[in-house]
Amino acid sequence: MSDELDPETLEFAHRMFDLARDGATEELAGYVDAGLPVNLTNEKGDSLLILAAYHAHPDTVAALLTRGADHSRANDRGQTALAAAVFRKNSEAVRALLDVGADPDGGSPSAVETAEFFDLPEMLALLRPA
Fold it and tell me: Where are the ANK repeats (predicted)?
């Protein structure tokens, strides 16, 4: 059996990643509800959740989380959805990820390290409430 995917399957997968990047929440959620693996990753290890967080789509992040997306999964560079949301200064996505147990210290760089490096005190306050 070949590990190679046929062109149609690859095209479909790329389209799903584009839906996450574009914040097409309802369409992407429909595919997940119909059987698309919620933790599908691309060639860089980016999950649908990481892409939605990085491209600042909190509604898509929330929809994927309610469908069981793994909030702790890191891409091939060690980055998590939480660190991506922090980098994009998206407090709504950060809160959604924290609410389901995302670890502010997980990944490399972690969300906390990202907030410190880019001097994002408002994000750090969300990650480390007083």
Answer: 44-76, 77-109
